[in-house]
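Blackboard transcription, Thursday session:
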Amino acid sequence: MSTKMIPFIIITGRDNMDSGLSPQDKKDLDKFIKFFALKTVQVIVQARLGEKICTRSSSSPTGSDWFNLAIKDIPEVTHEAKKALAGQLPGIGRSMCVEISLKTSEGDSMELETWCLEMNEKCDKDIKVSYTVYNRLSVLLKSLLAITRVTPAYKLSRKQGHDYVILYRIYFGEVQLGGLGEGFQTVRVGVVGTPVGTVTLSCAYRTNLAFMSNRQFERSAPIMGIIVDHFVDPPCSSQRPANMGQPCNYRAPDEEDGPFAGVQDSQEVCTTSFSTSPPSQCVCTLSPSPSKLSKPLPLDSLQLPLAPGLVTHTLYTSRLSYQPPALAGGAELCHPAANPNQVLHAGKEGGVALVPAQPPHGADAHLTVEHAPNTPGSSGDDDGLSQSGEGRRDEGRRSVSPSDPVESLNAFTRKIGAFVNKPSTQITAASLDLPFAAFAPRGLDSEENDPMVQPPDSPSCPSPLQASLHSQGSEGSGQQDDFVMVDFRPAFSKDDLLPMDLGTFYREFQNPPQLASLSLHISSQSMADDLDSLPEKLAVYEKNIDEFDAFVDMLQ
Amino acid sequence: MSRQPHSTLFGKGRRSPVNGNNSHVAMNCRSEVLEVTVEARQVEEAMLALLHTILLHRSTGKFHYKKEGTYSIGTVGTLDIDCDFIDFSFVRVSSEELDRVIRKAVSEFKDALSSDGMGQISLEFYQKKKSRWPFSDECIPWEVWSIKVNVVNLANEQERQICREKVGEKLGEKVIK
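(Written on the board underneath:)
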């Protein structure tokens, strides 16, 4: 699609001039729809920035607080949206779409969602524009706020950073859903009837993330980086439009770098004052948005990354989520342990890495899982705890019979992080007694990657969600050749405080050099030396025996 | 929903432990029932998520009545909240007071949940009608949201995580509803 071909049409094509809609109402309605479209784009893009959004309520509205909602306007986004709209409004056959896609650092990209704002012909002539439609649009925006956090792409976008970024693209015209793969699901956010048609907002999201599994994760990239420039979520007040403006590859080359038309936009304010008597007082003015059409750009290249510089949650890499080939939209998880040979599908980004069957390699990345000290039924827990206390969790997991408590403990203590390279996902449900172990993406080679899982905050913290190592959990661990990598997100783990997670910490400090005094070799040597030198010392003492006797006499 | 702007913006939450039902439901009152099955630890967050989402939709800014017959409406800010026990995030209104009220109601509900783990909490939006003396004010509900909770106990951690995820999805579906 290219913007060049869209003619610059003022909104006259509507066929309802005879509907009794007064010109003022018509003007208001068009304005509402336009700003609704712009705010919709803002909400969607902000929801995919990867940060938590926080805005304040205020009792005195400003001109830019459309629909009584405090939605910040990222200027770049507004600019893009206006560019895409090119002066038109969403209408029948002309939908505004925001496409969210994911792009890995290797250049693979995949469409995740398409949000569509459409208009159809069903008119609701009796509705009151200035009040009812406005309020309903406001409620629709709130629904959009809520729903943007629910679709799967939200979690993905919260974890973007190192390995992938989330991009958005706004286009106008026909809705294109082909890039979403098979089996995509549609969610209807809501509808609002207006005298000129019914506004419909919906989202189609991809459920099949299989594309990523084969290609993306076969490289080795350490992901345990210390993020120096990540931000803790600021308390409530600072949006970061500056980050949006960071130049990056995705920007079209002839984009302007300067601040985008914030100034001109401020003239388009919303009604802040309503009258209790019928004719509402309008305090808005409309000014034409600056035309940026002088340099027509193909829409395909118009991709702006979200939060390009932010690498906040890098330790939560995303790769796990893409692995399973059959990812139902609702993330079908394995059924409870009653069914031993169930293949696990990784639902989303949760779960813990499972354990490989091979004997431990010292340098392997592995993640440890905490034993809950207070969980019942795990008789051998003490061993495990003491081992974990030392930070030595190198025992490999083996196919153990549940009758061997110590071994079964060992079975649980070794976890593999990212990219275990075993193809099968035959890990049974029963074997996943680990916390969050319900997700079984395809494993990749573990040797190459550090674990991406986030261990719980501290081993001693009796987080209620920590695994208890039931011996029953080890039953199904027969297929130890297949280990899967799961993302481990224990409760209460906060990623924004500590750049280094527990896994790194453990690995680094896992093999401290032994104390010299404890070294058998050295001590035995010194003992031998002592023994050897003893006769010499005795000889010396005998020689000086007279002196010693004199000394003793003196003391008496 | 076309309603006149009203001085009471949202109704009070009322809890009914152990299979309680609302004792009075007006004839023309809209009623929605949501059912969730969660684990014990997730009860609070699940309730918070659902209640906050409902209230987000039903909240408006403060009305300021100025002279000359005009009024203005304040803006509502929003806040993203992540759940700790559930793989879920939701949006709520940025109002600390509202948050406190809801949390209080939810924790009372949680405490009052019976041992068999069934309960229901309701959020009612009502319209206050002032009446002349000697009649007291009348409260007429126009919308009631009931959330039925079923608490289960899960045997091992893996199930818990599944539950976490599933609850997250279910909440999402309810939100979409």
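Lecturer's comment: Residues 473 and 524 of chain A are 44 Å apart (CA to CA).
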